[in-house]
Amino acid sequence: MSVPKSIEHKGLIESIQGNKISVSFIALSGCASCHAKGLCTTSDMQEKSIEVFDVSNQYKVGEEVNVILKQSLGFKAVWLGYVLPFVLVLILLIVLTELTGNEAISGLGALSILVPYYLLLIFFRKKLQKTFSFIIQKLD
Length: 140
What we know:
Blueprint: E1 6-17, E2 20-28, E3 45-53, E4 64-70, H1 71-100, H2 103-112, H3 114-123, H4 125-131, E5 135-138
Antiparallel strand pairs: 1-2, 1-4, 2-3, 4-5
Helix pairs in contact: 1-2
């Protein structure tokens, strides 16, 4: 049984500490699951590890589970991690180029906006972890 409009991966429970379950899974890009990946150098497979909070006590270490994230949260993660910083850099680059006329200063100034942006993401990490919560389900 899957959650509607969700991103799913099969994972393996690595550890359980109280209500916190650590699950590892292999994240595949679209190319990694292709039958011709051995001939292509663009395939991408990465092992990821996430923490899931569960109070049901129905899981055990070594058990295979489905790791589920709502698709809308995936889009929100892409927005926060890639799109918004790109837009900020682009806007600041245009503004600084108009103000200074110097491309080098404008480029460095525009890139410097990324430091406080990602520091803000780190500062709000706890709130974001509550927003981006994963669900695990037993495999049938």
